[in-house]
Amino acid sequence: MISNEFEQLLSIYEKAGGNKDAFSDKGIANLLIHGDKVLNVNDVEGVILKSEQKKDGVIAHLSVGKDVRVKNPIHLCFGILSREGRQEIGVNIFIEDGAEAEVLAHCVFPNAVKVLHKMDANIKIGNDAKFRYQERHYHGEFGGIKVIPNAKVSVGKESIYENIFSLLKGKVGFLDFNYEVNCSGRSITNMIAKIYGKGEDEIRIKEKVNLNGEGARSLIKTRVVLKDKARAEVIGETYGNAPYARGHVDCVEILNGKEALAKAIPIVSVKDEKAKVTHEAAIGSVDKKQMETLMARGLEEEEAIDTIVKGILR
Amino acid sequence: MLKIENLTLKKDSRQILEKVNLTVEKGEIYALLGRNGTGKTTLAYAIMGCNDYQPNEGKIIFEGKEITHLSISKRAKLGITLAWQKPAGFEGLTVGEYLRCKNKNANVHSLLSVVGLSSDYLNRTVDDKLSGGERKRIELASVMAMKPKLAILDEIDSGIDAPSLPFIRKTIQKMRADGITVFLISHSEATLNISDRASLIGAGRILKTASPKIVKEFFVKHCKKCSHLYKINWERIKYDF
Predict the structure, then answer these.
(1) Along chain B (241 residues), what's the average pLDDT of each consecutive run of 10 residues?
(2) Which chain A residues are closer than 8 Å to B145 by Cβ?
């Protein structure tokens, strides 16, 4: 049974753009969880990947040792294949000083009719380290899923943290995304979220960055496209709490449906007179000039919209 | 190839084009000259069929077929395209994808080479990180990728860096050599010199059509200092062009 789930999950993982061979390669750290069962786990030198069972889910621990530079991205795959289910994942990540690592996480829920996927992550990045967390979701067409990712991240001095969240395939269902990042001196944080809402999807995104260290920099970039009756509310918050901190909040929401509804709430605040935080938000239909340009090249209206949307969500 | 008959267009109750008549012959570079605000871009948009530029009166005839009320896409399928004065940016769309957006088999390397850009540009995005000159050269390459019958180039040479200008002029000449008819809107004398015929537009009317040299001389003599920029009472003003 587990083997069957393993194969099915990997097959869908591959359809979602993942490299399934990563889960059989002993040189690649990986963790594969179906529901509350760990189907595969592999760590490599310098990377410790452990899991522990809890009710309705699993707690995953990932740590990358001091000065370790992980060559291949660490692959994580979380999913539920059945129509109903509940998955609660706790994620504790510790990237030690001077370490460099990238996580490629795929969350796969192809048949969800009544599924809850909740993730609570604690991410600690040491000093002078680099960490990139890329999370891609692959949902089915039923929209019966609640996705609730929460994360608290601390970024050490002179470290670089990048978080890329994308939910572009299938229906979103209900998404409540809530990340908070605390940034130390001269660190760089980039938070990028790209979501395509359709049907009656409901999307809530809250990203908060506290620029606590001198010279810390951040970018919150959100791109949301809404079709049909989909709704979205995007809150991007950045607080400049230290000298020479620089932050920017950039939100674009495109409505491609008369009943779609979008809200953008940028909150920027500066506590130190030498800090600077800026924001830009644009909500509206697909840009008319872009459309007409592509139509003047021979594309039909729908083709032009698809081309523009694909670019924005890339 | 293109015939405009008595084309009149009002926008927000302002008369922009008034009984415009002109003919563009197949295979020529036809230039339209005029001061800012005299209706050049409006005429270009009306020929392309842009949404807010539907004429109130008159006809646009392309290859013998009236296209006045066709959509942009349909006109493009007939072989008409437009390069905008300020081309749109496209977040996330690469130059390669943009050039192949309709013609998947377009030889993008060769197209970029014609406009003086290397193939390194193929993976760059068509956004505001490109300079004005780069963006306009890519716009020209994109027009050529479509292999149109009629290319409307709206101030393709304005607001760009000097090194880009020769590439733009050479590309326009190559278009003619490839059999593409060019409807060229420009302020530049050097660009006008490569055209075969030119017309002068003032206050929404075609004032004169002749060789580029004659039209330019006329423009300098009569229009540069003229105060009747946007509106002329044609009944009161005598003109014999």
Answers:
(1) 96 90 96 88 96 95 96 97 95 96 93 94 93 91 96 89 84 94 87 90 89 87 62 51 47
(2) 297
Number of structural domains found in chain A: 1
Question: B99 to chain A: nearest residue by CA?
Answer: A297
| Structural domain contains residue A308 | no
Name, in order, each residue with C-beta under 8 angstroms of B179's C-beta and a sequence gap of 6 or more: B27
The CA distances from residue B215 to A290, B31, B165, B189, B219, in Å, are 34, 10, 22, 11, 6
Substitution target from B41, B51, B70, B101 for chain A, most A beta carbons within 10 A: B101
Whole-number Å distance between alpha carbons of B168 and B191: 9
Distance from CA of A296 to the nearest CA of B (A): 5
Instruction: Give the whole-angstrom CA distance, residue B74 versus residue B111.
Output: 24
Tell me the residues of B at the A interface, defined by beta carbons under 8 Å apart: 48, 50-51, 71-73, 75-77, 80-82, 84, 87-93, 97, 101-102, 125, 142, 145-146
3-class DSSP state of B101: coil
Total length of chain B: 241
For chains A and B, what is the number of CB pairs under 8 angstroms? 64
Structure tokens at B165: 């200008």
Nearest chain A residue to B125 by CA distance is A311
- Entry field: residues in chain A: 314
Domain for residue A85, yes or no? yes
- Indicate the DSSP class of residue A274: T
Q: Please write the tens of the pLDDT for every residue from A118-140.
A: 999 999 999 999 999 999 999 99
Q: Per the domain annotation, does A297 fall within a domain?
A: no
Chain B hits for A289, Cβ within 8 Å? 84, 88
Quick check: is A314 in a domain?
no
Residues in chain B within 8 Å Cβ distance of A307: 90, 93, 97, 101
Q: Would you say A234 and A178 are in contact if contact means Cβ atoms under 8 Å apart?
A: no
Provide the residue range defining the domain that includes A72.
Answer: 2-287
Chain B closest-CA separation from residue A251 CA (Å): 13
One of 3.40.50.300, 3.40.50.12780, 3.40.190.10, 3.30.420.240 is the CATH number of B2-223, namely: 3.40.50.300
User: Residue A147 contacts by C-beta under 8 Å, 6 or more apart in sequence?
Assistant: A107, A117, A137, A167, A172, A173, A174, A175, A176, A177
Residues 6+ apart with CB under 8 A from B14: none
What ipTM was estimated for this complex? 0.92
Could you give the CA distance from residue A83 to residue A158 in angstroms, rounded to a whole number? 45
| Test the B interface: residue of A295, A299, A302, A306 with most B CBs within 10 Å | A295
Q: How far apart are the C-alpha atoms of B152 and B30, rounded to whole Å?
A: 10
- Whole-model pTM? 0.85
Structure-derived torsion over alpha carbons of residues B51, B57, B60, B61, reported in degrees to the nearest 10: 140
User: What are the residue boundaries of the structural domains of chain B, listed by start?
Assistant: 2-223
